[in-house]
Amino acid sequence: MNILSRWWSAASQSDQALKASIALTAYSVGNLLAWAAGVHLPVMAFILLLGVSLWMTLTKQALHSLAIAACFTVFVALIISHPVADWDARSIWFFHGKRIYLDGSLYAQLTDYGHWSHNDYPTLVPSLAASVAKMLGFWNEIVPRTSVVIAMAPGFFLAAWAFRYFGLYATWLAGVIMFSQGQLLNGYMDVMVAIYFSLGLLIAAKINQCSGDCQPSMAHLLGIAVCTVHLCFLKNEGLVLALLIGMAALPSFWPKPKLAWPWLASLLLFALLWKLPVKLAGLETDLTANDGMLARGMDRIFDEKTWNLLGDFFFRYADPHYLVFAALLVFSVLGATNRRVLLMPMAALLAYMGILLVVFLTTFHDLWWHLHTTVERLILVFNIGTLTIALWITQWWIEKNVAVPATK
Amino acid sequence: MNKQRSVLDRMGRGLLLIMLSVLCSVVIVLIYKPFQLQLVISTAGAPLNDMVVYFARASNRVKPTSFAQAKSAQITSVQMASTSHTLTIRSALPVRFLRLDPSTEPVNFSISEIRFVTGSGPHIVAVEELVALVSSGHQLKIAGRDRSSVTLSATGVDPYFPIPIPESVLTSAYREYCRALILTGLASVLLAVLIPMILSGLFALLKRACLALSRLWLYGLSRSQVHAQRVKVAANCAGAAALGLALLHQASLHDWWSIARLQDAFADDGVGFAVPAEVRNMKTLIQRHSLTDFDLLRDLGDGAPHTEIYQRASEYLYPARINEKARYKFIRSSDAVMLATDLCKEIDREHTISLVVCR
Fold first, then answer.
1. N or C: which terminal CB in chain A sees fewer CB atoms within 10 Å?
2. Looking at this predicted complex, what is its ipTM?
């Protein structure tokens, strides 16, 4: 109890936006736990929390708060104008949500009915969708998709905490919206995965920045936990990204292992609440069921077509905006006076590229099909990741050299 | 402590040097392809179109039985008349087997000589040996022979015969290869030492350039004497404008949006056209007959879980479940007539979908 109150006061002292982010994450995790027990947290509680969060943020970062309110209003208005239509959204995420709602359990999908529906995928958004349906009193094909906004909310507040200057925060929001295009609200998890991974890397950089001369605050560590818990419970690949965030913060975690506790606690929660029941149900992820990986990988490595396909797809989907941000990022990193801080986050981003390469080289699917169905979504991690780090470097520089007071 | 650190530092540098050397070696070997073999083939008779020599990088223990294109490399493709041709085979790894594909069409020709050129002198494949090799080939017949040449007849579009590289030629080629590898290794170590020096010089230059460029972007703000507050206001306005435009753009992607649609949002179902008409018709039938499980027949997704109708039926019709053993089955009405037997009987219909019950 004492530890909790210390954590909470640490967050309170640092910023209202971070406090809001933690509170909203607590709602999502609480909702998962509730559904695991066969009950749910009412969505009204989230709406109340969101209102309080916006109000509290308004007192310190008025423009940030207004921007979040504007975004959410537009998002909800757009979402409730159309039923869930995209393939994975229907076949996976909202199908799982419907099953949680109708069967009354977080683990409804572990019966493996509809095995093609990736029943081992985690259920943060599906459980929120089920709670929205509970609020409605029935399952409908439109309103549960607002669960995407609920899952996105902690990220938006976390970014408001990370980007103190409104100009930068608004640019970040605009960048995320522009990069995501139709994938922002269609019920896919990839935009959120990209957002939480990017923010996780940013906080890791902040921790590394602090680890030399000063002690990183608990606020930073809770920020990492917010990202990790979302990544794990959003999508299977989120676990890999959560581990990479830990890797990015390794220069700080290694000498002071105590700092890694919130991060480890998030992973443990995921293992106990989701991975263990999945294992007990005997479900396997499609990647671990990938037999003959090595032979297939070696064949593809020496096949010229593989590299042509990979290059073709990644360049085709690399947004021109991304290239601009990538260039800015390179200038920023090379021009920065303290590159050491960014080294591990950038290494984590590169490691993710390496992991993706291995996945594509060893996939048991037809490579063209696999690239065709995933690259557009995967590239978001790099688009939003580079955008986030580039803007943070800008803020860093402004704080050092211009000393403009943050927006109130 | 410092001493320990410096030892670790040296070890790290040494390791880096080794890794760089190995990397350089691999790159040089892949580019330069130090294994070299010269082959002279003299032919006469009809011109040979698209003659190709494949080589296999097989180890001593593995004798290739197939020269699939993916596992061997094409050397050249030449138009040949009565002439001799010199082919140079270059490979990163030692080559042990060759295969000669003389033509892509049935043709008669003769080979007067196959000669390997090595540093220790030429090695000519004897006519008797050539006859034996051609006999073990594919779509090739010996039409005649004399003391100096063999006349061959290609009987199909894919004639070929293997040419094992003689041991004496291989020994000589290996010797050259090892010599080249040693030189490559030395060059790699040199490069590994030089590369960091060159890179650090380039990096310093690049850093200057990047600093200059990044100043144009963000550092310029402080260089000018603009008031910080004005900068903040301008940045906020620009950010707000960017956000507004992004939201407008996002809204424009939802071009079907209208106020009237929001009233439908809280409707009982709200699926609209998000699932195919067939599946919506199935839902009507399921509700009408209070079904808990059903099956899909024929092109509605029988045994095809990755089709649209199957997946939409699975999730949209849930909690009614697809079950292969279910008595109630959905089929297109056009197919229901053909299905009408003693075993199955149509009991209801909704537009194009029929509900049949089977024994």
1. N
2. 0.87
